[in-house]
Design a protein that fits this description.
The chain has 158 residues and is mainly α. The protein has a domain of 54 residues. It has six helices and two strands; from the N terminus they run ββαααααα. Strands 1-2 form a two-stranded antiparallel ribbon. The radius of gyration is 25 Å and the shape is flat.
Amino acid sequence: MSNATATSNKTSSTSLGGLVGEDAEIMASVLINLQMLGYMVGAYLVLHFFFAEQFYHNPLKRGRGPTALSRAWHFVPLVLRMSDDDIEQYAGLDALALLEFIWLVLKILASYSAYGLVVSLLASWASAQYGESTWEGPEGGLARISIANMRPFRSDNN
């Protein structure tokens, strides 16, 4: 499925599927990291199945909080339906303040990332449409997305 080659001199060339250069290296690292994520989630689920008492023992021992859940992800709907008063009752005011802060930060980061994505896509499109010459940067398509690798624009003076 993958074909990786490297030369012995200072320049190296990597190919993975139809990708070459840095694109192939990024895709190879993404594939390895996704495999590791799958292994870790699988290990968590296996450990959770065999040692369920250890995962949810603490709330029952304290006598506070909701009852133990029968499956790994059943807590998500329960937590999403909890009101602020319930979160404060079960986890405390500091946990409620932390959750409110995290929600605020997520909204701010989402707006900045949407703005950055629009600017990057527009800059990439403008560079591809209005550049003077053919692409002379690194091989691969991902290098063209970076603003640092933009080609010069045509000028009305030239």
